[in-house]
Amino acid sequence: MNKFTRLAKRIDSFRDEMVNMQIRLCALPSISPSSGGEGEVQKARYLTDFLKQTPFDDIELIQAPDLEAPAGYRPNILAFVNGHRSTRTIWIMTHMDVVPPGELAQWRGDPFKAWVEAGKIYGRGVEDNQQDMVASLFAVKALRAEKIIPSFNIGIALVSDEETGSLKGIDYVLKHSQAFKKEDLIIVPDSGNEDGTQIEVAEKGLLWLKVKTVGRQAHASTPEKGVNSFKAASFLITELDSLHRTFGDPDPLFEPAISTFEPTKKEANVPNINTIPGEDVFYLDTRLLPKYTLEAVEAQIQKLARKVEKRFGVTITFEVQQRAPAAPPTSARASVVTAIRRAVKDVYGARAKARGIGGGTVAAVFRRAGYEAAVWSKIDETAHQPNEYCHIDNLVGDAKVFAHVFLQE
Ligand SMILES: [Zn+2]
Hints:
The protein is an alpha/beta fold. Helix content is 33%, strand content 26%. Zinc ion is lined by residues 95, 128-129, 162, 190, 383.
């Protein structure tokens, strides 16, 4: 029996243990303080116990200060297994934080008491990002159980704060640790598709704007005495749709292949029907292909706003909520891409392809820092939804994919 077959068999034998770990992790919610939670400390403690038992050769805890968190910090864990060669480290990075459950009425059960139903585990965080966190941990546990030394060093990174900007997560880790090297392979299993064929190597630039339109409040029966901010803002929204033409060139590497400009959130204006609203607030979510600059889009948005201001006599101001230019893409021929393709072919019998997506995963943080990183996992993309789930087959299958990568020369 070759090494991979042994590991795969061993991982199959861990199936129930993996499901149990999912359920345990789910009961330690790890919602970030800025989203009303307590952070990741409890989950980090539980995971550290597992890392010690496995055992890993070295465990490093990096605490990012956060006065909003009851513990005063956000935990980040780097756990290492020594390989035959230490010239590079094969990294798998997942995040411990989860998003709030949203409306509980939409859940069929308690989001923090994970339940199993027809081959799937349901609960907040079971897909995002626990599926591949558990998979990566049990891939290492299988190596240990089979007493197999991996070809290169393995690094398992368990980070905080992914859902709210990563400043106290991988961003902080990269600034305070020397553990990452340019020749390392970095896998971020935090996005993917149903058949596991998408290897994400590029992301679009991101721009989130709060758009405030100020007119003048008046009685709705005498609109001429006021300036209807809602009407002007609505006009602007339709004008903004022209961005699809101005920045309309597609790039087939990406899914979808075009830049997107979507008005999304809308704040309430007046509470009653018979008042002309003097103030209106909506938000715009822009995902821009790397061939365009955010500056060019911002200039065009300003131009459209000035036009609407002139026509309606309103004042329109913009507040940047999030702004991230596209990171330099990882090459579709990078070693990390090749390694995942090989593993996916052997484990799932599928042909994976390098793709660009709308973003944003934390791989961009690595890419901006000059590291090649690929985002891959086999998931139905139920992240952030009510009744988020994970196929147990994917939980086990992804562990085999990681084990396969660990064995590659
Ligand atoms: Zn995630």
